[in-house]
Amino acid sequence: MKKFFRKLFSPTTFIILILLLELAILIFGFYLIEFIFENYVPEEYSSLSFLTYIFIRFLLWIFQMIIFFRIINKYENPEYKVTWIAFMAILPVSTTIMYLIFANHGLRKKDRRIILPTNKIQEGIFQLKEEEIDDFRYNVPLEYRGIFKYLRKTTRLSNSKDNQVTYFKNGEAFFPEFVRCLSEAKEFILMEFFIIGEGKWWKQIESVLKQKAKEGVEIRLIYDDMGSFGLLPSSYPKQLAKFGIKCYKFNKFKPLLSGVYNNRTHRKIAVIDHKYGFTGGMNLADEYANEIVRFGYWKDTMVKIEGRGIANLIATFLQNYDLCTHKISDYKKYIEGEYPQYENGGYLFAFGDGPGSFDGNEQIGEQNYLNIINSAKRELWISTPYLIPTYRLTEALKNAAKRGVEVNLFVPGIPDKRVVYWMAKCDFHILVDAGVNIYIYKPGFNHEKECLADDIIAFVGTINFDFRSLTHHFECGVDIYNDPCLKDIKEDFLEMKMQSQIVDKAYKVNGFQRFVASILKLVRTLL
């Protein structure tokens, strides 16, 4: 029943109704006006029906032209403009209405009032010392230095050195360690996840959180209202509040008309004191630990950070927490503290990304992928559950393969979104023809989002190769340079390769799948 009402009041239902209205206007517009005049307007005015119809159409045309020029002149990804302009030419009325409601408007004004001041706070806190700058310049080659400089410029955070990073190649390894770390909390626990689902592991985590709150540990928890819809009681934040846990639904789901419908928090962040920080692809639900089977074997990864790199995760979490509370937190209180130091650790840069004007119109997650891909000289390993890349990402992968880089790209063998997967399969040939090796992970669903270049720099996080992740969602992750954990990431990729089937040039997609994919490509920027 919950799923039924969710679909009934969803934007998809609204779009269908708008399209039906468009069809009615195109076919019956004049007759509708004439019917109204004949039955509800005095007879002396009935001859005006045709002029009235022309006048209404003229007003609609003026309004549509205003929207058209707004789309043309707005500074954003041209791929989005093409989609809207094409639909406006075919279905002008419904496209105009849908654009006003569902177009990527970025952050709301009330959200910008939080983000802009917190950006300035972060600029003041995350300043590298002169010796740190010299050390970074001396130890990191120019091509990798630029990757970190870009993130410093766009996120107002900073890179750090001498952290210890532990890589978890599946949920079976991650969840027991996560519960153990939570049980060590003394000061605060900060957690933000797209999905929290009741089950074996959340029951254990919830029990630890309640115990820690009882001991006086401050607990702040965010989960996405859409991502966790139907998985938790609607009153769950109030239930946790009784135990002293500060819990918020991010971007509460508003049926039908929500201009920020797409702006979900897809982040996975957990910070325990100044001791442990976690990020990666896993949500807090049993399928991520393969306690339940949904799409074959669920392959996912997380990293645990110990050291100063945690500070970036704290700042990233606090910004979204402040969007929930509409108050600005005391950043220094949570960020300043004693962090453990480990020798021989590499450089880390944990960061967050967000929709629209989170940082002008910068698509930080996409550009970070591009920077890593373009830095590769020998090998490139990528895993993504959803392969609907932007034109820029597609060209970067093709270019890497053509300049002699061995590009290995992993996609699921058992997808969770079948129709979206058809779209990916129909475009395999574009990458394969350029020399990209695409591997289908046969055991099940690889949900991890990772990129490793030349065994020297990697990204582990939440950002998929699709428009929803790259443009609409709040995302996060960490760049890791020259750290011992990169060996574990490489070994994991090699293990996946042994379990995967390579896509050759003879790979075919059936006609029905091609037909559905060709239709969906019209709206691929919204998927």
Please provide a brief summary of the model:
The chain has 527 residues and is α/β, with parallel strands linked by helices. It has 20 helices and 18 strands. The strands form 3 sheets. The chain has a 9-stranded mixed β-sheet with strand order 1-10-17-16-15-11-12-13-18, with helices on both faces.
What does this molecule look like?
It is built from 20 helices and 18 strands. The chain is an alpha/beta fold and 527 residues long. The chain has a 9-stranded mixed β-sheet, sandwiched between helices. Helix 11 (236-241) links the parallel strand 4 (218-224) and strand 5 (246-250). Helix 8 (142-155) packs antiparallel against helix 14 (364-375) and helix 14 runs parallel beside helix 15.
